[in-house]
Amino acid sequence: MRPILEIENLSVRYTIGGGLLNGPANEVRAVEDVSFSIMPGETIGLVGESGCGKTSLGRAIVGLQRASSGVIRFAGETLDFGSNRQRVTSGLQMIFQNPYASLNPRMTVEQIVGEAIQIHRLAGNAADRREAVVRLLVSVGLDAQHAQRYPHEFSGGQRQRIGIARALAVKPRLLVCDEPVSALDVSVQAQIVNLLRDLQEAESLAYLFIAHDLGVVRHLSHRVLVMYLGRVVETGSSDQVCLTPRHPYTKALISAVPSLLPTHKTRVVLKGELPSPLNPPAGCPFHPRCPIAEARCRTELPLPREVGASHWVACHLAHRP
Fold first, then answer.
1. Rounded distance between C-alpha atoms, residue 166 and residue 142, angstroms
2. Would you state the pLDDT for residue 36?
3. Would you say domain 5-91+172-313 falls under CATH 3.40.50.300?
């Protein structure tokens, strides 16, 4: 079976500053040399601290941000910013993080969800479009009567359901979910996560699930990618990464996950702040905060190495317990 999405050596860089009043131009290295693939019906969890490049990667995949280099291949076809983008990526949609900002307050739910149906000509007339919108609303746990309301009349969880319905309107094969539950209450988070799982089973969807909460990611994902300062530092199955982490950064993320169960887990507290992507450190990008860094880590960039079946870690010292 062929992957639905293939990412090869993808980098995203932003130029800031420059010009007469803004000083010299600087380059922000948001994503650096990232490669992975997603199979049909699979969920890949992408985790890391705020500022590590998760959202920039997701936006580049769906075409909201131009990649600086690398290849994005969807359903076997290489994507660019030319004529094939709209035709191919109707099967590739995004669920945004903030349900309060991602919906147009001047449009009704029917207009919001039905807009893509109209643009892609998926319904013959207005009545067919209205019927399709109602089906989508019902599929995400809303009612037909909600179609004539405006976004401000809904709770955060309901708004996120509207966003999901909008993403499903063009019958996608893959959804990029950019922290879709981080702005919601914990009880509502569980409802949205369970909804995404049900939709995946019903529609055979694949997900790239972007989050900073490893607990949520483990519940939903088949495989997990851990990002730090624009680079993937560990990847493996959900159980491999969450139960037997090998990278020091992953261990710190795991130790921060709250648990009601009594455990002997040692809390790993990282020193310092995430370095600026304007001036990333030489060698391993994690070495300024790493509790086990050696001299080699300060000068030599670690390449991914396999430490188990399909379990890869970019760390010189990954062999250590």
1. 13
2. 97
3. yes
